[in-house]
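tool=predict chain=A
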Amino acid sequence: MNQPHTEARILVIEDEADIAELLCLHLGDVYSEIVHESDGEAGLARAMAEPWDLLVLDIRLPGIDGLEICRRLRTENQYLPILMLTAKTTELDRVLGLEIGADDYMSKPFSVVELIARVKALMRRASAFGNLHRAGRAKDVIKIADLSIDTSSRNVSQAGETVELTAKEFDLLLHFAKHPNKVFRRSELLDTVWGYGHEGYEHTVNSHINRLRSKIHPGYIVTVWGVGYKMVTTS
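tool=predict ok
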């Protein structure tokens, strides 16, 4: 007997027909709606025009490549869990993908079982951060001094002024805000905010925290030398 599908819309942007067919087939066994685009420009337009629960994105695409698609989605402050695929295993590709906001990363050829596991992990993490079908409620607003974080709408303001954050910057800030005064090692932040499989990329945490400090009062997130970072409740 077939198992019921999980309600979710997944967009696959992949130009290799055999890999796209494989992805759509196996993701379609688990999730209710899988849509495929093979061109970068068409894929970006589709990603921005409709609501999605996850994007599976190849890096090398005709038209606009996957890195640029990811960058534009994050620039628009549109939160969408992104799993990037690439035929290359270079350090540069992986670092670039993580730096611009990809949530996870897999190299081709990949195990279908592992891919499904990672997709499920991204879905769980997105749900935990309040990104899947949550209505805004007053109790979803976290206030720390003059900083206000709405976990449902993913809006942040400081002293009444809107603060524009990328999806990953928001996730990082929210994690700190939920655990004020607790010190986190970089490896812990990678595991919790970025997910498993990112060991050795602690510099990604550093760069995101530096960007976050440039957008909110830098005194909110402090460095605990030799350990990591923590959020203090007064700026």
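Residues 6-128 form a domain with the Rossmann fold fold (CATH 3.40.50.2300). Residues 112-128 form the longest helix (17 residues).
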